Amino acid sequence: MRYSSQLHTAKRKSVLKNKKKSSLISFIWIVPILLAMVMAVNFSDLNPASLFGGFCVSLARISIAYIIALILSCVLALVITSNEKVENAILPILDVLQSFPSFALFPIMIASIRSSELIIITVLTLAIIWPILFTIIGGVKNRREDLEEAATIFGAKGYKRLIYFQLPELAPSIVTGSIVGWGEAWEFIIGAELLVKTNLGIGTYLGQLGNAQQNLLLAFGITVLLILLFVINKIIWLPLLDKTTKYQSE
Description:
Layout: H1 4-43, H2 48-80, H3 84-97, H4 106-112, H5 116-141, H6 145-153, H7 158-196, H8 202-211, H9 215-244
Helix pairs in contact: 1-9, 2-5, 2-7, 2-8, 5-7, 7-8, 7-9, 8-9
């Protein structure tokens, strides 16, 4: 086994090189896809300002809701799993609440909340939080006891334990739940923007095309939306998922 370390090092470098090459190829393909999409929109009857501007507004709403849901999920998951009695009391309640349709809250929120932005972000937060919360709880339940003991032995306590041990250990679960929650948010926001009747948003613009019975433009607008979501997934979520696997314990 004289050269085993050199072989492992060479293999690791080869894998990293292939990953970088694959990522570079993916990014190169994204550029012509985006250019072709922009040209197609300009030559169609779609309103580029309403389409891309609405997408950016919806993206901002989802991003705000995602940050809120992520923070709440991490706090709730760590609090719930810190005590067995608390977990047994609260977890069944959360399990029931996650199956409750968020859209059923719209009449109550519209009657009690004047801000359309607050209503949309609240609904999106409720849509995003459940997959993140339960994947984090699953990650905590499946953590390795030997790593926990090692962290305790080396004096990992308080915020240092949270930052340098717990969050990196839960990174794969957080990213996996985030991908699911992010996808559900894009499903919810179309209906949310239509029900609240906001003036800006991708759902608002697609709804206007549907009401005008411009079915061909509506289909094309949905296709553009799917391409934009594919680009975000390729640029952000897939690399992030790949990066967090180094924290995953076997």
